[in-house]
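Why does residue order matter? Because the sequence determines the fold. Keep that principle in mind as you read this record.
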Amino acid sequence: MIRVAKTLGLILLIFIISISSNIVAIELEESFKFCDEENKSTKQEIVCNQDELYKSIIKNPLFFVIFYLIAVFFLAFFFQFYLKTLKRNLEKNDKHDK
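Structure:
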């Protein structure tokens, strides 16, 4: 459990450093010109949505950090549960083999 906490702490530290360096290095520019138009193609709509998402993550990364942490903890819990179940099944198979 301590290993998981150290690993998650290291991942979070690297993530925060990369986000903070991106905030300093990147200035938010205006949107693409075609984003202001009423009739956009599907590709243009996707690009505009991605641009808005990117800008919101850069302006306020807290939501993304929280989402990332929840996802990491969920995967760690799922993996730990899987290993316990696998170990239990292996022990049952070993008892039946004897």
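Residues 62-97 form the longest helix (36 residues).
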